[in-house]
Write a structure and sequence with these properties.
Number of helices: 10
Number of strands: 9
Oligomer: single chain
Structural class: alpha/beta
CATH class of the largest domain: Alpha Beta
Shape: globular
Bound molecules: NADP nicotinamide-adenine-dinucleotide phosphate
Largest sheet: 6 strands, parallel
Helix content: 40-55%
Strand order of the largest sheet: 1-9-8-7-5-6
CATH topology of the largest domain: Rossmann fold
Radius of gyration: 19 Å
CATH superfamily of the largest domain: NAD(P)-binding Rossmann-like Domain
CATH architecture of the largest domain: 3-Layer(aba) Sandwich
Strand content: 5-15%
Length: 282
């Protein structure tokens, strides 16, 4: 079999960000107010600091203002909740991103729920999960939303297909499965307690790997012609799929980096501008 076609997340994300920048400029022209994303960072974990900086840079390039809120590592759940509630009430802020994971002493769920649903551009609240699952207007979790955009861009017909999602986290595995279900795929979730993972993955027409274990999904587990989405991002730019062997069996595959990653940020920017448009009545 010939090698899989690569799903170019970098190129698609660039197009989405260009469109988003045009919309941001239009909002700024019409209202005199630029869309604004507040980023909230607790502590100084180097990876989180880098992610926040990257998101702010991308915002700036797209004509979106960003407000950086940096809190000390010892911030309590109550203090974080108060900060997020205050940003939720602030009319100058249109979207809120709480960089996670937050410290273990913080109740992350309580913090997420302090974000007003209309500003939840990272799609982390119960309200966003519910609207997404019911197919109602609202914000999706950014990585799952980006994955669906990528599948659409490559004309992957999901109806009736067997989709296997490896991973069930609240921000990635679970929501991506709900989005695939909404497109009439037959969805199976796998997780750390799944027995015979390989044999489940082998039945998939579409595989989404969202685990955080380098090269867990191997080429020999991929059904010939399957579509393989690798959301994993591990040290050394390695995904959760063994790319070299999977590319020999899949029909379409996302590279790491350059596949799912850029789509996550593009979705965040797009949802921030949509949030601003709604709040400013444009
Ligand atoms: P997470 O919260 O740690 O969840 C990992 C999931 O994988 C859990 O559901 C866990 O099962 C499951 N799992 C762990 N070991 C397994 C195994 N051996 N077999 C089957 N399932 C197993 O991770 P996450 O936040 O969802 O992130 C997953 C990956 O995506 C990471 O590499 C992360 O860096 C990447 N990521 C990328 C982006 C992006 O923008 N590209 C965004 C977010 C995350 P249990 O539920 O049973 O524990």
């Amino acid at each position: 079999m010939s090698q899989a076609r690569l799903m170019d997340g970098t190129a698609l994300a660039r197009r989405i960000v260009e469109e988003t920048a045009k919309k941001a400029a239009e909002i700024t022209d019409r209202t005199g107010t630029a869309p604004c994303l507040a980023t909230v960072l607790v502590g100084e974990d180097p990876a989180s600091v880098t992610y926040v900086r990257m998101k702010q840079n991308r915002c700036r390039k797209a004509g979106i203002d960003s407000r950086r809120v940096a809190l000390p590592a010892e911030t309590s759940t109550g203090e974080l909740v108060a900060t997020l509630r205050s940003l939720s009430r602030d009319p100058a802020v249109h979207g809120i991103l709480l960089q996670h994971p937050v410290g273990e002493h913080i109740d992350e769920r309580a913090a997420f729920e302090a974000i007003a649903p209309e500003k939840d551009v990272d799609g982390v609240t119960f309200a966003s999960f519910a609207t997404m699952s019911f197919g109602l207007p609202g914000f999706v979790s950014c990585t799952p939303g980006g994955i669906l955009r990528l599948l659409d861009a490559y004309d992957v017909d999901l109806a009736g297909k067997r989709a296997v999602v490896v991973g069930r986290s609240a921000i990635l595995g679970k929501p991506v499965g709900m989005l695939l279900l909404a497109r009439d795929a037959t969805v199976t979730y796998c997780h750390s307690r799944t027995r015979e993972l390989s044999s489940v993955v082998r039945e998939a027409d579409v595989v989404v790997a969202a685990v955080g274990r380098p090269r867990l999904v191997r080429g020999q587990d991929i059904k010939p012609g399957a579509v393989v989405i690798d959301a994993g991002y591990n040290e050394g730019n390695v995904g959760d799929v063994d790319f070299d062997s999977a590319v020999e069996r899949a029909s379409l595959i996302t590279p790491v980096p350059g596949g799912v990653g850029p789509m996550t940020i593009a979705t965040l920017l797009e949802q921030t501008v949509d949030a601003a448009a709604r709040q400013l009545g444009v």
